Amino acid sequence: MSARARFTLGQRGSRARVGTRARSAGKVGDRILFGLCALAGLLVVATLVDVVYQLVNNAMPAIDRFGLGFLWHTRWAPNFSVEGAGALIYGTVVSSIIAIVLATPLGIAIGLYLSMMAPRRVRAVVGPLVEMLAAVPSIIYGFWGLVVLVPFIYHLEPGLHSALGFIPLFGPASTTGISLFTAGIVLTVMILPIISALSRDLFLTVPAELKDGAEALGATRWEVIRGIVLPSTASGVGAAVVLGLGRALGEAIAVSFVIGDVTQIHASGFEPASSVAAEIAAQFESAVNPLHTAAMFYAGLVLVVISLLTSLAARTIAGRFDVGMLTRAS
Amino acid sequence: MSTATGITLGETGLFDPTAPLTPSGNLRRRSVADRFVRVTATAAALAAVAVLIIVAYGVASRGASSLSLGFVVHNSQGLAGGGIANMLLGTLEIVAAAAVIAVPIGILTGLYLTEFAGARSRTGRILKLALDMMQGLPTIVVGLFVYGLLVIPLHKESGFAGAVALSIVMLPLMARASQEVLLLVPGSLREAADALGVNRWRTVLTVILPAAMGGLVTGAILAIARAAGETAPLLICDSLFNQTATSFNLFGGVPSIPIFILQSYDLPLASAVDRVWAAALVLMIFILIANVGARVILARSRAKMGQ
Predict the structure, then answer these.
(1) For FRET with A272, which of A5, A107, B122, B149 sits at 20 to 30 Å CA-CA?
(2) How many domains, chain B?
(3) How far apart are CA A302 and CA A296, in angstroms?
């Protein structure tokens, strides 16, 4: 019995027997290392919990005053102590949808090009360049968007209106080029590298035998993509899109440069608007009263809930793919 | 009877290897579709590269005229001009402090995930989900969190609060990078250390971490590059400072380049806007060098590990 116990012990430690002194010192060291690692992990979880606590705590005055109506009331008038985030949430959602609609097909196409079509040398150059788009800081996208992109959109708007004016989103051209639509374009550029790098990595995981098999049956490259590559990675690509969406929903600085900071809802995307994150960035420093600050914490709480839900959704959709693992530092 | 791919099926609907191969007649349409997809995908990739070039050129062409050695080594004089030396230094201080917090915790978290939590462990899965969520947090919310955690109790915006906020941005990146590279360390190294009777903590310190060093450094550099350009957390936690002074006190306001850009871009002074472009160019060059450097180090360490 005791021999067996010792055997099990040896198995668990899987170490040869050494001097008792060294072993006990080793045990202490092992415990310290484990303790430090567990502490670090605990800190991560505790930080997340504290994020929610701090936001709820500081948002309390606004939560008491506005309740859940905060989410759909559209009047944002801090000077009159009236704050409703409806228009902000509308701006956040619509600008992010514009970005997702534009960036998803583009990102998947880039992922396909980099994983299945580009020659090895081209891939080694273009891949990092596309990822570099994610490294550009949001403040540079914002400033660049204001100075370079906004005039360009200004000249683009009349054409888009005359061609697609039957869709309410493409309403009459604005007078400046600063608009919800411009914010959507900036967000497109910012999330494109996320979707394309993730989908490229996903497409590279498709076993070569499957692709070779399909090609041996005479399938063209497009048929391999449609029949093999996309179906087998669909859940991962879906998760990548959701991750991109999460990034777009939370972007503050770049959006605040080009969206116009107008807290009204317009059907036309060419009108200036505002988003939850951009409004916090624009007004936090110059809050007019404590309720205003609390309302911005409330808005931040809304953002946190949205971002936690998108993270969960991405993980659920991803299924067998560990998308977080593929994300790297982008 | 034939399928889209031109494989002839026999009377029974099963594949008949003896039947002659007959073209299905739509090869032309199929190859047109294929070519269309190839051209579209190539164009999309070119468009992304073009956007990067347009952004980089937009910043470089506007910033280059005001960028000089003096701009980087002289302190700002507010509206009167000057350089950005104190803000560059402030950014370095804040980011260094953030790295001191985030890099060790990130590596320890990565170690926990690879060395202590098995693939099916529940705590490991919870921790991974928490890291995903942390990475998904909007950076402005991170700023709000630290504002509630540090700025309100201390009644003071500070470089330290900014550093804590940036460390929360860096931590999930660092943890994921560590986990990824620690998983790449060959199992034979661990087994060899085990066979020699080396304790777990010694194995980790003397075998596993050194083997993973290249990847860890890469992860740290990429996380630092990401944090250096973050604006939203600093806007909320560290935007009250003297633009013209050098600050070595992390517990007071520390100037930084992103906030300088944010505070000066709409000044009605052409010279001030020129300096903003130059500051943006400095920031972009720093981040570009960090990214390229990280890639070089990663390629080297991968080659050393024989992968």
Answers:
(1) A107
(2) 1
(3) 10
Query: Which tens digit of pLDDT belongs to each residue from B152-181?
Result: 999 889 999 999 999 999 999 999 999 988
Say if B50 falls within a structural domain: no
Residue A270 near residue A262 (C-beta atoms within 8 A): no
Closest Cβ–Cβ partner in A29, A45, A113 for B45: A113
For chain A, what are the domain ranges?
65-327
The pLDDT tens digits of the residues spanning B223-281 come to 999 999 999 999 999 988 888 888 888 888 899 999 999 988 888 888 888 999 999 99
Task: Provide the ipTM.
Answer: 0.87
Question: CA of B114: which chain A residue's CA is closest?
Answer: A37
Cβ atoms of B296 and B98 within 8 Å: the answer is no
User: In angstroms, rounded to a whole number, what is the distance separating the alpha carbons of residues B248 and A2?
Assistant: 63
Read off the pTM. 0.88
Cα A75 to the chain's mean position, in Å? 28
A221 to chain B: which residues are within 8 Å by CB? Answer: 34, 37-38
User: Domain for residue B230, yes or no?
Assistant: yes
Q: Is A49 on the interface with B (CB under 8 A)?
A: no
CATH number at residue B249: 1.10.3720.10
Residue B194 to residue A233: CA distance in whole angstroms: 38
**Per-residue pLDDT tens for A77-112?**
888 988 899 999 999 999 999 999 999 999 999 999
CATH code: domain A65-327 is 1.10.3720.10
Whether B130 contacts B193, CB under 8 Å? no
Among the partner-chain residues B123, B133, B195, the one whose CB lies closest to the CB of A48 is B133
Residue A37 to residue B108, Cβ atoms within 8 A: yes
- Inside any domain, residue B247: yes
The range of the structural domain enclosing residue B215 comes to: 67-305
Which DSSP string do the residues of chain B spell out, in sequence order? -B-TT--BB-TTSSB-TTSPP---S-HHHHHHHHHHHHHHHHHHHHHHHHHHHHHHHHHHHHHGGG--HHHHHSPB-GGG-B--HHHHHHHHHHHHHHHHHHHHHHHHHHHIIIIIS-TT-HHHHHHHHHHHHHHHS-HHHHHHHHIIIIIHHHTS--HHHHHHHHHHHHHHHHHHHHHHHHHHS-HHHHHHHHHTT--HHHHIIIIIHHHHHHHHHHHHHHHHHHHHT--HHHHHHS----TTS----TTS----HHHHHHHHTT-S-HHHHHHHHHHHHHHHHHHHHHHHHHHHHHHHHHHHHT-
- Residue contact A324–B55, C-beta within 8 A: no
- At A136, list the tokens: 């550009």
Burial code (b: 16+ CB inside 10 Å, e: under 16) for B258-272 equals: bbbbbbbbeeeeeeb
Phi and psi angles of residue A296, each rounded to the nearest 5 degrees, phi first: -70, -35
Type of residue at B163: A
Q: What is the pLDDT of residues B177-235, one digit of tens each?
A: 999 889 888 889 888 998 998 888 889 999 999 989 888 999 999 999 999 999 999 99
Structural domain contains residue B41 = no
